[in-house]
Fold:
Amino acid sequence: MSATHTCARARRPASPVLFAALALAFVVAGCDDTGSVDPEPPGAVPIEESLIDTLLVPRFWVLDSGEFRSLRLDVELSGSTREAVLDGELVPPAVTVEIMDTVDADTVASFVLHDDGGAVPIDDAPGFVAETSGDLVPGDFSYSARIHSGFTDAEGPYTFAFFVEGLHPPDSTMPMLAPALLVKIEVTVSANEPPVISGAQLPDSLHSGFDTQQWTVEVSDPNESSGDRVRQVTVALAAGGVTYRDFLFAAGEPPSWNFTADSTFAAGLATDDYTMTFTATDEFEQSSDPFEAAVWIENLAPALSNLTAPDTVEQPGPDDPANVYAFTVAVADGQGQGDIERVYYTVLDPNGNFTESDEFVFRDDGEDVDETAGDGVWSHAFQVDAGVSNFGTYTFTFYADDHAGNTSAPTEKEIYLRAHAGGNE
Ligand SMILES: [Ca+2]
Ligand SMILES: [Ca+2]
Ligand SMILES: [Ca+2]
Structure:
């Protein structure tokens, strides 16, 4: 790949068509391992925005906060450029950031992003830069630093200007190789207070099959007049110290944040006393004090109905395929079909022997004898093959389990197994 690249460069300048033809010709004829053409070093790669794969910069900074936050710039290099850097034919990129007061364009601070794996203490870093960069993998062209808002002591708009130096041949002395501006990002520094959760309309109990309802919390941000806002309201649902679910409320008419819950909300949750802990965050990523609400949640077992199964099943002839009988049963659950974990049966044979099996299960996926997926009608293909014995009356007992660990009341059905006509019954 890179050999093709350098061979093509050896014959500059050329028209695009000729260039392509020459490149092809060299691949075929001249640019193999024994080729006599000395590869010309690659030229400098221009510093431009297309080099940015990912750029992570917090846009809102809390004045006088000592909290370190991560900045990351992932540089995207083409395969041949990457190889040239790794081969020492191009100087690796070095990334610096200048922070300017946006209003008067004065530079107030500068620092370096590192691709050092994060383990090496940084020398000579300004006080607002953390001692280690927070970079994860050395040498992967992902550059990081962790800084706090101590780059300034005044509120206002600031500009983070990212400069890149490098990606030129190591012996190059051309003046154009000074650090080049890659991108500018506007940020805001402001004294900030976190959001406040001031009220809520929440249920204190949720019975199995509860009606669809809207839950609301009231959240405001003290800095709304200066452009901040509540960005996210998250809820952790926990019982006994275990968090079972995290979910989000959605912004409604201010100051309301809402969640619409239906009875399937309780799927997978065992009946218990739960705590919902609300946290609101603002644009500065500052979090409110947690707001807690207790709620009792009920999850009841599934119920079976409308079982269909034959009264009699029959042994096929000695050379015949198995006889197949469809069993179906309707399964309802107050928490919806999503709460149903398993529908199954056990068998008591005419001699009083009890059998359960992983194969004695129903399905509601539309496959095999199940007509419609997800309709709550669960199906099972019951097979009788020629080798059966113990003819007589069998007792089948049907059950459904839900994801909360509840088991339905059983439903029984007697089925008579008859020998093949002409058999030895
Ligand atoms: Ca705020
Ligand atoms: Ca249930
Ligand atoms: Ca079905």
Q: What stands out?
A: The domain at 196-297 is CATH 2.60.40.10 (Immunoglobulin-like).
